[in-house]
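Marked as duplicate of an earlier ticket. Keeping the data here for the record.
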Amino acid sequence: MDILPTTEVKALVELQAMDTALDALAARAAEVPVKIAALDAAFEVKKNSMSAARDALLALQLKKKNTELEIGEADEGIRKHQRDLNAVKDNNAFKALLSEIETCKNKKDELETRVLTLLEEIDLAKVEDARLKEEVKQIEAAKNAEVAGLSAGLKELESRIAAAAAQRAAAAAAITPALVEKYEHLRVKRAGLAVAEAHEELKTGKFSCGGCHMGLTPQKIVDVKKHDAFAICPDCRRLLYLKRTVFG
């Protein structure tokens, strides 16, 4: 018979329950830094969008300033050419200066139109900049509150883990070392679940392994009902027990 005789069935079942609870607590604790990192990353994305909006506003303001400088240069060109008109005697040179003045005026008109367009764009950019600043402020406050809650929850989890680990260590120390070693080895191989409850379907009378969910043979059903022994699942090799036999 493929069974593991032991008088410590109940103790090992309870140890498995402690380890399952500890694993769940540890998994929850491990999720906290991941959640905090995700919150920080999302906040950085929003901050980057705010920075991009600020950079766009500054770029528009710089463009406006440079355009205004070009307008000043065009104005200076017009004044210079107008001064030169008074000193020109040649008709062709006079016409050339008039043409230059006209060119400068046309350029100035074009630049002034560009400034008006930039002013409209700057107004819109200022609104967007202010909106994103306020949004980032609110998001940061919400993030900080959530991070504080997660951090507080992590401290509580760590306290519970420490207490549960101490209780678990005491329980393991009371079990035969060879049985604990076998159990630990199986736990590593079976994703933390070495001892599994056999599930019984009352209507059909069928039994299955609570670990791999494979159906049990008639002989294995007989084995799992035994006191002071674990049945061994033929598929996953977990130690099987029947709850009503162990705790009934």
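See parent ticket for discussion. DSSP finds five helices and five strands in the chain.
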